[in-house]
Amino acid sequence: MHSKPDNSAFHFPTPWKFKPVRGLANIVNYGGEDLGFQSMTVGPLETRSLIDECLPTHDFSAAYEIRISAPRYVVYRTLSRADFSRVRLVRLLMAVRTGKWMPRDAEPKALRQRLEGSGFFILSEVPDQELVIGVAGRFWRLDGGRCTDLTPQEFPGFSRPGYAKAAWNFRLQSESADTTVLSTETRIKCFGQHALWRFRQYWSVVGPFSGLIRKAILKQVKLEAESIAR
């Protein structure tokens, strides 16, 4: 069951389904600033992406995109070096979720280094085009319940009852030589009715805040990439 398209800014999902994809062209404001976020409508993606290969079927999903005035290679380089712990909103919402303040990284690290030991890992990557991150666990637990021993090779076959797995991508598409649309989509697949029920409850509360985190990350990449491109 899908929510109906909404022409006014971002709209949050019903507790059981949210699958917006590219469509309408109205601009969304973030904190009073025009950031170039695109409103989205229900429909198929124009071309298949890596996330379609990593997690083709799913129970929940959410997607956002932003227009960036920078070449695609600059945006990708910025994304691969971005430190999301620098985003105050991300740290605040993670603190609310876990009860612990998320520290900033002491020194810059590549994305793969930052993911080590977190339960997250890179599933697939085409430089300057798309990056897909994977994770599995019982996300409704306060500690995230992540399967820290799961490997990228084991992700496609993972279907442990009572658990869920998620794929999270960043996709870059050039509108012109100096303009890039950066989109991000999160997909979740649950295994068993208990996991589906628990995640549905969890997502009805956390889903909107998860969306704020995704938008804050896109905003950070936009600001840094455009600063480099000037």
Explain what the structure shows.
With 230 residues, this protein is α+β, with helices and mostly antiparallel strands. It has helices at residues 50-54, 72-81, 88-98, 111-115, 193-229; strands at 21-30, 33-41, 60-68, 121-126, 130-137, 164-176, 179-190. The strands form two sheets. A five-stranded antiparallel beta sheet has the order 3-7-6-5-4. Strands 1-2 form a two-stranded antiparallel ribbon. Helix 2 crosses helix 5 (193-229). The chain has a single domain (21-229), classed as Alpha-D-Glucose-1,6-Bisphosphate, Chain A, domain 4 (2-Layer Sandwich). The protein is globular, with a radius of gyration of 17 Å. The protein starts with 20 loop residues before the first strand and ends with a helix.
Structure in a nutshell:
With 230 residues, the chain is α+β, with helices and mostly antiparallel strands.
List the helices and strands and how they pair.
Layout: E1 21-30, E2 33-41, H1 50-54, E3 60-68, H2 72-81, H3 88-98, H4 111-115, E4 121-126, E5 130-137, E6 164-176, E7 179-190, H5 193-229
Antiparallel strand pairs: 1-2, 3-7, 4-5, 5-6, 6-7
Helix pairs in contact: 2-5
Low-confidence stretches: 1-46
List the secondary-structure elements in sequence, H or E. EEHEHHHEEEEH
C-alpha termini separation: 44 Å
CATH architecture type: 2-Layer Sandwich
